[in-house]
Design goal:
This protein is α/β, with parallel strands linked by helices and 206 residues long. Strands 1, 4, 5, 6, 7, 8, 9, 10 and 11 form a nine-stranded mixed β-sheet that branches. Helix 1 packs antiparallel against helix 2. It starts with a strand and ends with a helix.
Length: 206
Amino acid sequence: MLKVLDHPLITHKLAIMRDKDTSTKDFRQNLDEIAGLMAYEISRDFPTKKIEVETPMGPCTTKALSKDIVLVPILRAGLGMVSGILDLVPTAKVAHIGLYRDEETLEPHEYFAKYPKNMEDAVVMIVDPMLATGGSANAAITMVKKQGARNIRLVCLVGVPEGVRAVEDMHPDVDIYLAALDDKLNEVGYIVPGLGDAGDRIFGTK
């Protein structure tokens, strides 16, 4: 299921990121903030359990998260979303998936993977700023499923209908969360209007 988080603060910060004149510092900072805002919205249905705590005034029955939260950034641009979510969920574990895209075929190829234990019981959030062709997202989802993950959410800033359809066709059990659904892909597989190459803009490599 596709969910576009059309929140005024998210759209405002995304507008700053889209601007070609936005500095690396401001791009990175707004990405952190959007990731945190998205995580807040996405976490509404995270499973909880009842716990007992002692307040200064006496005992209290309340709730706490009952499952591990695992963030899975797709390297390298996905790293830009991790700190904003960790600010909100500091107990989350972080896996890493390294994929590169063949510039001719646009197909993803794995070059690195590292996971925490107990993926099968965790809420897994695969994060990547862009959902373009859907190739990298589908590859990452397949990889975490092989680790036993069942509760998987794909979290991206900007996507296009082509990428959404590709993920829905291959992984209909995975919810997709976007900050914006853009128009289309151009002839070389970049999102239009998009925000450019997210990795280069996060790390200042262009």
